[in-house]
Design a protein that fits this description.
Layout: E1 2-5, H1 13-18, E2 22-24, E3 26-30, E4 36-40, E5 48-52, H2 60-74, E6 79-84, H3 102-113, E7 117-121, H4 126-131, E8 136-139, H5 142-150, E9 157-161, H6 167-177, E10 182-189, E11 193-199, E12 205-213, H7 217-228, E13 233-241, E14 256-262, E15 276-279, H8 282-294
Parallel strand pairs: 1-2, 1-5, 5-6, 6-7, 7-8, 9-10, 9-12, 12-13, 13-14, 14-15
Antiparallel strand pairs: 3-4, 10-11
Helix pairs in contact: 5-6
Bound molecules: ribose-5-phosphate.
Ribose-5-phosphate (R5P) binds next to strand 12 and helix 7.
């Protein structure tokens, strides 16, 4: 298999090579009139290929990803798997009157461009898989997120889901960390996110596990509620840390001492804070690609 990796994801290359994958070269440039142009430097004819990148904003990422997919198929690639460590548009998974379904739209673009399979980490919901017109493999982050719990060396700890929907992820993380105590918060949405009460036992230390930290609104509200319930020290563990805007930094004011996140978003690899701990998702992705190949796709 040849992996065509967008530059910002080069930190995953070593893991892919360890699994025996070779890397392919390509360029994406613009004509003077700004139209994009993709060119392969590595032949892809009759090869199984993977593209590692993102369709998340800025929007040119989606255009470049789908153009490269089309280019590989034009060049005769036998198959193209999209490796999208963070699956953008996945939160647009419910039909709302007068609104498009972002996940279905993005999936149709990927499929029409020639993607045969998507591999991602911890996708937002099962509904996403149903909206996509191509097979999706969502890798389970539980063992990686469990690191956040194990490193605390606190046997008397509770792992908290910020809503009922996150309970399965939380239970799997708890079991991977060997922790028995799991709780969840009741969450309502009306003009923003509000957490009403903790369902379960409060302990001095808690780890909140969620899929996405975006603006931080959800986790700030959850942290406030945990403090009210008597929790003194909070650790946050998320699969995808988008760190949009500045408001998420208010987490530090609400008892959050550290944030663990996977490196599914390239920008986190450059974050320099002793309170932000980045866990490599490369081994998980590389193993999955290897298994995908071994199954003969
Ligand atoms: C919600 O359903 C998700 O699981 C996340 O909790 C949410 O999308 C995070 O977004 P923000 O950080 O902007 O609240």
């Amino acid at each position: 298999m040849i992996a065509f990796v967008f530059d910002e994801f080069n930190y995953l290359l070593a893991y892919l090579r360890e699994m025996g994958l070779t890397s392919g070269d390509f360029t994406i440039e613009r004509y003077p009139n700004q139209e994009l142009r993709a060119q392969l430097k590595t032949p892809a004819r009759n090869k199984d290929c993977a593209i590692v990148g993102t369709i998340a904003p800025p929007d040119h990422n989606l255009v470049e990803f789908t153009l490269l997919t089309h280019t590989l198929k034009q060049a005769g690639a036998s198959s193209v798997v999209a490796v999208l460590p963070y699956l953008a548009y996945a939160r647009q998974d419910k039909a709302q009157a007068g609104e498009g379904l972002g996940m279905a739209w993005a999936g149709q673009l990927l499929a029409a461009s020639g993607i045969d399979q998507i591999i991602s980490v911890d996708i937002h919901s099962q509904a996403d898989a149903e909206l996509l017109p191509i097979p999706l493999k969502s890798l389970n982050p539980a063992k990686l997120l469990a690191q956040s719990v194990k490193e605390l060396h606190a046997p008397d700890i509770v792992i908290v889901a910020p809503d009922r929907g996150a309970l399965e992820r939380v239970s799997q993380t708890a079991s991977a960390a060997g922790v028995k105590r799991v709780a969840h918060l009741e969450k309502v949405r009306s003009k923003g996110v509000t957490h009403l009460k903790l369902v379960g036992e409060a302990k001095e230390k808690a780890v909140i596990v969620d899929d996405i930290l975006d603006t931080g609104e959800t986790l700030i509200s959850a942290a406030k509620q945990l403090q009210k319930a008597g929790v003194k020290e909070i650790t946050v563990a998320v699969s995808h840390a988008l760190f949009t805007g500045q408001d998420w930094q208010k987490l530090w004011r609400w008892g959050v001492k550290r944030i663990y996140c996977l490196d599914t978003i390239p920008a986190v690899t450059a974050m320099r804070s002793f309170r932000i701990k980045v866990i490599a998702c490369g081994p998980l992705l590389a193993r999955s690609l290897r298994a995908h190949l071994a199954r003969g796709r």
